[in-house]
Write a structure and sequence with these properties.
By secondary structure, the protein is α/β, with parallel strands linked by helices. 46% of the residues lie in helices and 19% in strands. Strands 1-2-4-5-6-7-8-9 form an 8-stranded mixed barrel, surrounded by 5 helices. Bound molecules: ligand C2E and magnesium ion (3 copies). Ligand C2E binds next to β2, α3, β4 and β6.
Length: 285
């Protein structure tokens, strides 16, 4: 709080900054409670193969059912959780949820793969990979049912030991994806040296692919480059079928976006797969 001090002194905070600061403190407190009180939920966004035309899996995305404010989206709290370190606990919770869900799917013979986001802060924690493996083995989930998504900055920071753990997971069947490609450095050396199965093209690349010739040329070049190093490509935030047609022609393997399903809860996802031609699922986009 910016208190009035003696004349001529600097204020550390102005009112706007003070408000923003208080919002962060409040979010952090409320988020700690959210984990304990079961206010967090995992939503699933379908991923569609452009080769087979079938939904082949989903990305797990956090949702927060705030008791007063209602549904809160990750961009309103993940950055705060990243800064405070709370993301490590939240990330563990997400992994636990995904493990339990996939344990049920596996028992039922429903073999869709689920991707989840891993924050660099989670990698800092001792034995992250040990606990991850334990969570999935506790529920008898084969690692071939999961995919870990890392952003480029996480990949850049990762130590050799972390890279070795990622390689080991991959050798045991897990898929590894690089998220948000095209926003950061888009480091090409990293693409070659990292153990990777798929690269996810950032929405900003997809955005103008229809309307802008230059954007199209750039995406085409990136797609060829990624395929050249042997990775599959997932295009994110595909919002209409014209974009999907263009991306298919360019060689993109998989699409994810509102055109094929917004993030939805597990029940809706299962219903969507069971009655694939059925009515649109209720989304929690
Ligand atoms: P992301 O991993 O890149 O996830 C994709 C985001 O794009 C999701 O936003 C998704 O809802 C959104 N999206 C999907 N289709 C479309 C579309 O057609 N158009 C547009 N404009 N957007 C689309 P969401 O769910 O709000 O998540 C935002 C970010 O929050 C994620 O980006 C990820 O970085 C982070 N996040 C979400 N869940 C987790 C989590 O469990 N752990 C960590 N560490 N981060 C998470
Ligand atoms: Mg992601
Ligand atoms: Mg992304
Ligand atoms: Mg992202």
């Amino acid at each position: 709080r910016a208190k009035a001090r003696g004349g001529g002194q600097h204020c550390l905070f102005n009112d706007d900054l003070a408000t923003e600061y208080n919002d962060k403190i409040e979010t952090e407190r409320a988020l700690t409670e959210a984990v304990q009180q079961g206010q967090l939920q995992v939503a699933l966004q379908p991923q569609l193969s452009l080769v087979t035309g079938e939904i082949v899996g989903a990305e797990a995305l956090l949702r927060w059912n705030h008791p007063r404010e209602g549904l809160r989206m990750p961009n309103t709290f993940i950055p705060i959780a990243e800064r405070t370190g709370l993301i490590a606990e939240i990330g563990d919770w997400v992994i636990g949820e995904v493990a339990m869900m996939l344990g049920n799917w596996h028992r039922e013979g429903f073999h869709h793969r689920v991707s989840f986001n891993v924050s660099p802060r989670q990698l800092d924690r001792a034995d992250f990979f040990g606990r991850l493996r334990q969570a999935f083995s506790d529920h008898n989930v084969p690692l071939s049912m999961i995919e870990l998504e890392f952003t480029e900055s996480a990949a850049m920071e990762a130590s050799e030991a972390v890279m070795a753990e990622i390689s080991a997971l991959r050798a045991d069947g897990a898929k590894i994806a690089l998220d948000d490609f095209g926003t950061g450095y888009s480091n090409l050396a990293r693409l070659r040296s990292m153990p990777l199965d798929r690269v996810k093209l950032d929405p900003t690349l997809i955005d103008q692919v229809e309307s802008n010739e230059k954007a199209r040329v750039i995406v085409q070049a990136i797609v060829q480059l990624i395929k050249g190093v042997g990775c599959e490509i997932v295009a994110e935030a595909v919002e209409n079928s014209a974009q999907a047609d263009l991306l298919r022609a360019m060689g993109v393997d998989t699409v994810q976006g509102f055109a094929f399903g917004s993030p939805m809860y597990e029940r809706e996802y299962r219903a969507l797969i069971t009655h694939s031609s059925g009515a649109a699922a209720q989304s929690v986009a």
